[in-house]
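REQUEST ID: PR-0412
SUBMITTED BY: lab tech R.K.
PRIORITY: routine
TASK: structure prediction, single protein chain
INPUT:
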Amino acid sequence: MIRLGLCCLFIEEPIRFRTTTAATMARPSRTARQLRLSELIRENASALRLALEYCVAHGIGCFRVNSRIMPLRTHPLLGYRVADLPESRRIREDLSACGVFAREHDLRLSFHPDQFVLISSPRPEVTEVSIAELEYQAEVAGWIGADVINIHAGVAYGDKQAALARLGASLKNLSPAVRKRLTLENDGRIYTPRDLLPFCKAHRIPMVYDVHHHRCLPDGLSVAEATRLAVATWNREPLFHLSSPKEGWKGRRPERHRDYIRPRDFPLEWLGMNLTVEVEAKAKELAVARLARHLRRYKQK
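STATUS: complete
OUTPUT:
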């Protein structure tokens, strides 16, 4: 069964996640700032519950949670521990309730940290900040029951193998909460499935196969081969990514995402598999609904 996933936001539904800026939060006193952050997080927990309810009502099997569900959580100057916030108990209860709801409805949850998370960096300070971000997301993932925290291998810094070696070394500094959820995704500029599959196998990290990225940066593996090898890295239901090029495959920048998925971009190799497919399309819930209709029509043929 194909489980389609919605990524983070909505385009038409009035479900919104709140955020703030460091400049805004630097003005109030520490007490006032912590109170405001508590309010924002609880509002985001309420929005998450609405998002999960929407997914269940519309047959969407996975929801990617916005990495900024706790604004400024790891900011170097304004960062905080949830335990230090005035409504910490209610925050944990709100998020845990979302986890209970997701489990009751077999709704999968995931995270995809921002691009600044680079645990392969040659700069220790960048790696340290990146690990702190992963640990924060693992804390939230534990409350809500998310089983995936997906990252890219990062920049090659002129030497892919050396960068991957640093990534491997950084794995030792991750908590078990991060480590058991961490996945690695191929990208469209540097790291192909062929680059990452040996690393994933050696370090027992599931690979999130992004077929769009693979089509932008081919490596000699077919979609069928990459699918089979990526599936073999998982000890649970595999999670893959799908998107379509905004300007077409012959366009100037095929890596840019289209509003909707073109039906012919869905790999036939995936049909009939037990697989989560996160739909990375600008039209968000509308794109998921359109793709779901296409897949239903395909089954009826």
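NOTES: The mean pLDDT is 95.
REVIEWED BY: pending
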